[in-house]
Amino acid sequence: MIVLLGGQRRYILSHPSECSNLALLPHGHPSERHSAIDFSNPFTAENKKKYPNFFSKAKANEIVLEAGDSLYLPTYWMHYIVSLNNFNYQCNARSGMTHELDHYIKECGF
Questions:
Q1: What is the pLDDT of residues 39-98, one digit of tens each?
Q2: What is the DSSP string of 31-92?
Q3: CA 35 to mean position of chain CA atoms
Q4: For the structural domain made of 2-107, what CATH number should be given?
């Protein structure tokens, strides 16, 4: 659960089934399970050439949270956050894990 307490943030969210299309850094990398693509400037020629599945297959949802908004983020959902102003802050709470989506993450090597 995420509650935005101040400012605005854009969240880009993908279901775990999109794992293979998101150009995730591999297991063992210091930033494993993060995308190799900078979502704030993804459309570079280098990215388009190196990560074709990201541009042709990846699906995502986008939402902008403002102060007072909350977002439930299910287990294993991929997310990327873009701050929309200079000063913003959030509070997160974890409520446990579910396991019905484990197979998607395992198929991606995590």
A1: 778 899 999 999 999 999 999 999 999 999 999 999 899 999 989 999 999 999 988 888
A2: TTTSBSS-TTS---HHHHHH-HHHHHT---EEEEEETT-EE---TT-EEEEEE-SSS-EEEE
A3: 8
A4: 2.60.120.10
Mapping DSSP to helix (H, G, I), strand (E, B) and coil, where does residue 16 land?
Answer: helix
Residues 24 and 34: their CA atoms lie apart, in Å, by: 5
Q: In the Cβ-directed half-sphere of 59, how many Cα atoms lie within 13 Å?
A: 4
How do the domains of the chain map onto residue ranges? Answer: 2-107
Q: Tens of pLDDT along 13-30?
A: 999 999 999 999 998 999
The 10 Å CB-count burial string (b at 16+, else e) for 45-83 is eebeeebeebeeebebeeeebeeeeebeeeebebebeee
Contact partners, residue 43, CB within 8 Å, separation at least 6: none
